[in-house]
Amino acid sequence: MTMKMTRKEFLKVAAAPMIIAPLALEELSKGTRSPVQELGKQKAVLVDVRRCIGCKGCQVACKAWNKLPAEQTKVTGTEFTNPTYFSPITWKVVRFKEIGDYDNTQPGTGGLKWRMLADNCKHCIEPSCVSVCPTGALWKRSDGPVLYDINRCIGCGYCEMACPWGVPHFDEELHSIRKCTMCFDRIDQGLEPACVATCPTDALQFMTLEEARMKAQEAEAEGLHTYGHSEIGGTSWIYISDVPFSEFGLPELSSATHKNFENNLLMRFAGVGLLGGAALVVIKTYADRRETLSQEGGGE
Amino acid sequence: MSELAWGPIMAGYLFFGGLAGGAYVVSALADLFKGEDTEALSKSGTYVSFFSILIGLVLLVLDLKRFQVAPLGILNAYRRFPDSILTVGTWTITGFTAISLVTSILWLFKGNALARKIVEVVGIILGLTTTAYTGLLLAFARGATFWSSPLLPWTFVVSGTLTGLSITLFMIPIFAVFMPKLKPFWELYNDKSKFAEIVSRSQKYVAVLIVLELFLVIIELVIGHGHAEILLTGSILSLIFYAYLLIGLVAPLGISYYTTKMNSVTKDETLILFSMGQYVLILFGGLLLRYVMLTAGQIFH
Q1: For labeling, which of B45, B99, B121, B210 is most exposed (least CB within 10 Å)?
Q2: In which domain, by residue range, is A271 found?
Q3: What is the pLDDT of residues B236-291, one digit of tens each?
Q4: Is B55 an interface residue toward A (CB < 8 Å)?
Q5: How far apart are CA B97 and CA B156, in angstroms?
Q6: In Å, what is the CA distance from B50 to each residue of A229, B96, B123, B185, B205?
Q7: What's the half-sphere exposure (Cβ side, CA atoms, 13 Å) at A291?
């Protein structure tokens, strides 16, 4: 038995994928990136480096609240930062820095001062780790924290590479990436993150992102240094300091979000390809012409 | 301190992924534009590309640290809208694997030539994308500033094409010896002058690709975000880098020059022998390049 199809039926069948495909793509794209709410609704932590006394209370509070075991480290005698790196069990590191030649006019200071910076996941507004995660194991919660689902993580390690601060680390025992969660479980209970709650000098302050950004703006107007205000499109962890953040080894970053960074690189990649391709065509044409001329010369 | 997240297995994945894309592009272009006299080359490249991408995929899956716990976790990447370079890569490599398999089947069972050529056009795009992806994957990792260069993906594209061409030619006698019934490798292998002619003609392309790769690597070092010193001085990595330059580029370029000069006066066997050695060096160099770049980027994270 043969089945005949009318033109109308054929058009219906042929048009179906064209209608379904965009709808399916739209459906697929839903939920892949958590919508970033208005900045006012997002939570943030403002870190005033000038207020930090280096008690490491925040580092201990982080370990205690998140039940993270101690790191096996060595006392070097010259390095007060301990441990010096993030790991699956170290989500917060207080970086110590003795800095000179900033204010020699103050008598008795000797031009030297200590500055300490409580370093951890910056909970970027548009996080690189979330952008690159192939399985959606990492996401940005609408009120600020960048979180992860250990059951969705495949251990590809790309978030470790994408994060400019090298924050996420794979936990071999838990078989998942781990990092600071901004104590989302405390936030859900109306509490401050553990590190903020324990800080005795208010060097860490929990507030809305809008407030934190406003304070950062005021600090900039006073000539202070800020970090996280514009870097990588802004972060939910904003720092204020009277010394440059390069002193603490924090990388200098443009304000481009990860997507902008990728697009920019892709454009430059295409540009190099076009230029290189054009150069190769010119060289080939020149070589062919030279060969033709030499053959003609040889022929004569 | 934790060890490097991406080690030799990942370098192997990038190497085989790039090589597979390169081998396919070379073999498909030969089939589309050169026709029947390069049948062996086209077939060899197609078969090699399929097996290489399979090896690459196995290495990729083995490198996933959660593989033992959730071996099917990678399937989550297919459920998402491809908005991450990794998901784009997952789809691209899947498509490329399918295309290289279809092309291999069409060659193996003497399928319709027109159908094969249409598939090859799609395959060239996917092959190039796969090769470029192995470099873009690194370039898009913002944390590793050493990789954040548009030249790195092009270096990998050129290296992928070079290693792809090399393995394609290298495998012709291997196919002939180990699978003599697989046409037309045995015939070509026995017709030394014809095989030598193909090898000789390809030397021009090999030399151009080596020079191009050398040029890209040098430019990358010059504008390399101030990180070039780790590759140039005082570390084991710098030794591996020099080994790559010597084994993977300088020595093969020397062989290219030598074979071009000796071509008219030396026997075909010598030309083939030298070229085979050259291909091995290029392949080893390609692997070293991936390892060096992968490690250097992570050191500067």
Answers
A1: B121
A2: 265-290
A3: 889 999 999 999 999 999 999 988 877 555 678 889 999 999 999 999 999 999 99
A4: no
A5: 19
A6: 48, 9, 11, 18, 23
A7: 6
Tell me, rounded to whole angstroms, the distance of Cα A281 from its chain centroid: 41
Q: Identify the pLDDT of residue A102.
A: 56
For chain A, say whether B301 makes contact (Cβ under 8 Å): yes
- Beta-carbon separation of B66 and A169 below 8 A: no
**Shared domain check, A217 and A113:** yes
Structure-block tokens of residue B228? 């070039």
> Is residue A93 in a domain?
yes
Question: Which chain B residue shows the shortest CA-CA distance from A164?
Answer: B143
Q: Which residues contact B211 (CB under 8 A, 6 or more apart)?
A: B253
**Token pair in block for residue B282:** 């290029």
How far is A129 from A166, CA to CA, in rounded Å? 10
pLDDT for B224 equals 66
Question: SS3 breakdown of chain B: % helix, strand, coil, rounded to 5?
Answer: 80, 0, 20
Range B8-299: architecture per CATH: Up-down Bundle (1.20)
Q: Is residue A141 part of a domain?
A: no
Q: Is the reported ipTM for this assembly greater than 0.85?
A: yes
Residue A262, classed as helix, strand or coil, is helix
B251-262 vs B268-299: helix crossing angle, rounded to 10 = 160
The minimum CA-CA distance between A264 and chain B, rounded to whole Å, is: 10
pLDDT at B184: 82
How far, in Å, CA of A141 to CA of A125, rounded?
10
All residues at 6 or more sequence positions from A263 whose CB lies less than 8 Å from its CB, including other chains: none
Helix (H) / strand (E) element for A46: namely strand A43-48
Instruction: Please judge whether B143 and A166 are an interchain contact, meaning their C-beta atoms are less than 8 angstroms apart.
Output: yes
Predicted pLDDT of residue B52: 97
Burial category of A279 from C-beta neighbours within 10 Å (exposed 0-12, middle 13-18, buried 19 and up):
exposed
What pLDDT is attached to residue A272? 94
**Mutate: best of A23, A135, A250, partner B, most B CBs <10 A:** A135
Q: Express each pLDDT in A45-84 by its tens digit.
A: 999 999 999 999 999 999 999 999 998 888 877 788 889 8
Domain identity same for A280 and A223: no
Query: Which residues of chain A neighbour B5 with C-beta distances below 8 Å?
Result: 157, 160-161, 170
pLDDT digits (tens, 9 = 90+) for A110-164: 667 889 999 999 999 999 999 999 999 999 999 999 999 999 999 999 999 999 9
Query: Are β-strands A112-119 and A93-100 bridged in parallel, bridged antiparallel, or unpaired?
Result: antiparallel
In a domain, A139, yes or no: no
Q: ∠ CA(B182), CA(B175), CA(B102), 5° rounding?
A: 60
Q: Assess if residue A201 is contained within a domain.
A: yes
A12 band by pLDDT with thresholds 50, 70 and 90: low
Overall number of domains in chain A: 2
Note whether A228 and A239 are within 8 A (CB). yes
